[in-house]
Structure prediction request, 433 residues.
Amino acid sequence: MTPTLRIGLLGCGAVGRELVRLFASEAPRLAEAHGVDLRLVAVASRALPSRSELLSTIPPGVRVGEDLSAVALAPDVDLVVELLGGLDPAGPLVESALRAGRSVVTANKLLLATRGAELARLASRTGAALAFEAAVAGGIPILRALRESFVSDRIEEIGGILNGTCNYLLTEMARTGRPYAEVLAEARTLGYAEADPTADVEGADAACKVALLARMAFGADVPLEVVRTEGVTRLRPVDFVYARLLGQVPRQLGLARRLPDGRLLLAVRTALVPASSLLARVDGPLNAVRVTTAHAGEYVLSGPGAGGAPTAAAVLADVVEIARRGAPFLVPPFGTDAPRPCVAGGPADSVAPFYVRFVVDDRPGVLAALTAAFARAEVNVDAVLQVPWTEKRALPFVVTLEPTPEDRVARALDEIASLPFLVEAPLLLPMVS
Prediction:
């Protein structure tokens, strides 16, 4: 007999509407091919009463309304899909559903990065399933791969391009030479950036994903606050000119690396990657996750990292898995029931060649002062690049540094910050392979 799974949906934005459409179009195929009977029985969203077009997407017979808690705890709901985002009211709703023994599928990266370990323990105690494939990299099935496919190898590093908004901004700035603000306005128009893009462009969105990837890859309880986070807002068109001269491409990268002593290096920042690399060829709003293992080597998984259809497909895959396997899963949501404490590395552990862009009031002695500060910090300068520039009172040029621990570079830049010819703070980007 085909098992029936009755589903309640919280939130009906772009992903929620696409998920409703997928339930309607794919349920017959899933029943025939996989023996699961998926039935959407209730939808709750505070947007429904004020946006009549949403109502037209809900099939007849499905209850709709504003009361989120009523759906989360409805007696005829076996599984709750949470697509509200944020911590409140999503957190209390997910918690109450799990306490009642209902399985939960969510795409809420912030909630999982903040309360994921707690919610996983609660699901284990009540016999519910907690699934969240859509929380990282949209339609790329990276979390399931970490939980199951990579268990036979030791992961040394994981990360990559984890935010489609930033990747679109950087690839368009590189392609067109336009400034950040202009490209951001276009991204909003195209739907690649939110009305308030702060979480994306300042790195907070990718930091949540780094924390989740690190938990899955290294079995560590990674607090969100230990992920070093920098945005993309300070890049100028001239940085793309210099990057091209160096054979490099700017990309916002999330990184989780295991250090030899077991500590974790965790960061979200813009880096320069070789133009010949796979990451450099991931353009527009796509994501790419690179996994480096001790024995099998390197893997790169790439695909749509956001948007209604890819995210909804990942949510539906979790729903199908729960329908097929039942709850709870044999493998814990984060791969282990007993994560170890996370000890984070720091700037001294980040060793790389660096790109440093200065903007100065051009006068005699500028280069001598900069190189002297680097020398006192035991940092070797590799090259100095300067393209022709007419504005001498705001002259941009670049110094590249040989591989060195970042704490030494920071020491030099602290000294340089007091020099009178600086027009703005230097921009520091690691150059990674």
Summary: The first strand starts at residue 4 and ends at 10. The chain is about 35% helix and 25% strand.
